[in-house]
Design brief:
Belongs to the pyrroline-5-carboxylate reductase family. One of its GO terms (cellular component) is cytoplasm. Residues 158-243 form the Pyrroline-5-carboxylate reductase dimerisation domain. It is a single chain. Helices cover 57% and strands 12% of the residues. The protein is of the alpha/beta class. It has 2 domains: 3-158, NAD(P)-binding Rossmann-like Domain (Rossmann fold), CATH 3.40.50.720; 171-264, Orthogonal Bundle (ProC C-terminal domain-like fold), CATH 1.10.3730.10. An 8-stranded mixed β-sheet has the order 3-2-1-4-5-6-7-8, sandwiched between helices. Helix 6 links the parallel strand 7 (126-131) and strand 8 (152-155). Helix 8 (171-189) crosses helix 9 (195-215). The model has no long low-confidence stretch (mean pLDDT 97). The protein binds NADPH dihydro-nicotinamide-adenine-dinucleotide phosphate (NDP) and (2S)-3,4-dihydro-2H-pyrrole-2-carboxylic acid. (2S)-3,4-dihydro-2H-pyrrole-2-carboxylic acid (A1CAB) binds at residues 96, 165, 169-170.
């Protein structure tokens, strides 16, 4: 099956790499259209997909089409595609903050909302998904096979997708942000340890921690118990985090939800005005 990818930014590129590396689709099955053609041409050097000249070219060639533009650029794309869609085609929107209801209002056809993650370029991470009522079981299975090649796939209700997005999709950026602060604090305490060294120590620690949790199927609490000797040093750090981090994470969810809400308002205007 040919797969269309509209928009070749972080997520469009992740899909090309993830599908190709996993072998679930060959680059020859991928049809890419990006607003700026040069970006496609540069990327095509490593991943020999087909470059399309228009949305229509993608639509003609592909049964499954991922729209990977920024949320505010999605409506015009979907509006242009809608009249030419065949009943067998399946559209995937990866845009954060655009509801299936709004998407389906433009085209009463099979549409799935997927919230992917950049870590899927190395075939790890979680893709969240929710399908509309027009997605057939065959279309759902086809998509699931692709998403499972990129890591794990988890079907979620739209009512919780925004909270889950912060964990699985913003997560890599947020974890990187936390690690940078951790690395800088270590450097402030011991300036003879360069920031590069503190970062390197943390990257290996992150990798080992994630692998141990996953391979031994440990809960966070079980790992904490292994590390934090009773009356020892780690417990002091855990106590500090227990005091200061809950309000920080509550605020993080508050602010990211507010951003989701304002994005939804802006995109809803586009969908309702037209
Ligand atoms: N980044 C992430 O980790 C995640 C992103 N998402 C969602 O994925 C979507 C894309 O995000 P991201 O990849 O980060 O964004 P980027 O800005 O990196 O990429 C967007 C791409 O869309 C292209 N584009 C814009 N308009 C059109 C158009 N009309 N036709 C074809 N191509 C077009 C842009 O082209 P040009 O080269 O001209 O700028 C650009 O390459 C967003 O909706 C976001 O909510 C969801 C989960 C995670
Ligand atoms: O930050 C963003 O808006 C996108 C959506 C989730 C992750 N990245």
């Amino acid at each position: 099956m040919n797969i269309g990818i509209i928009g070749l930014g972080s997520i469009g590129q992740m899909l090309v790499k993830g599908f190709s590396k996993s072998g679930v689709a060959s680059p020859a099955q991928l049809f890419v259209y990006n607003r700026t053609r040069e970006k496609s041409e540069q990327f095509q050097a490593d991943w020999p997909f087909t470059i399309c000249a228009s949305l229509q070219d993608v639509s003609e060639a592909c049964e499954l089409i991922f729209i990977c533009t920024k949320p505010l650029d999605l409506y015009p794309v979907l509006q242009e595609l809608a009249p030419q869609l065949r009943p067998t085609q399946h559209i995937v929107s990866v845009a954060a903050g655009i509801s299936l209801e709004d998407l389906t209002s433009v085209s009463a056809t099979a549409i799935t909302k997927v919230i992917p993650t950049v870590t899927s370029q190395i075939l790890h991470g979680v893709s969240l998904y929710a399908c509309n009522q027009y997605v057939s079981s065959e279309q759902r299975e086809q998509l699931l096979r692709l998403l499972q090649a990129l890591g794990k796939a988890e079907e979620v209700e739209e009512s919780v997708i925004e909270t889950a997005t912060i964990l699985s999709s913003s997560g890599p950026g947020l974890i990187a942000g936390m690690m940078e602060l951790f690395a800088q604090a270590a450097h402030r305490k011991s300036p003879e340890l360069s920031v590069e060294t503190t970062r390197r120590l943390l990257v290996e620690t992150l990798l080992g921690t994630a692998m141990l949790l996953s391979e031994e199927d440990l809960h966070f609490e079980q790992l904490i118990e292994q590390v934090a000797t009773k009356g020892g040093i780690t417990m002091e750090g855990l106590n500090v985090m227990a005091e200061y981090l809950p309000p920080c994470f509550d605020q993080l969810f508050l602010m990211t939800q507010a951003k989701h809400d304002s994005l939804k308002l802006k995109t809803k205007v586009q969908f309702n005005e037209n």
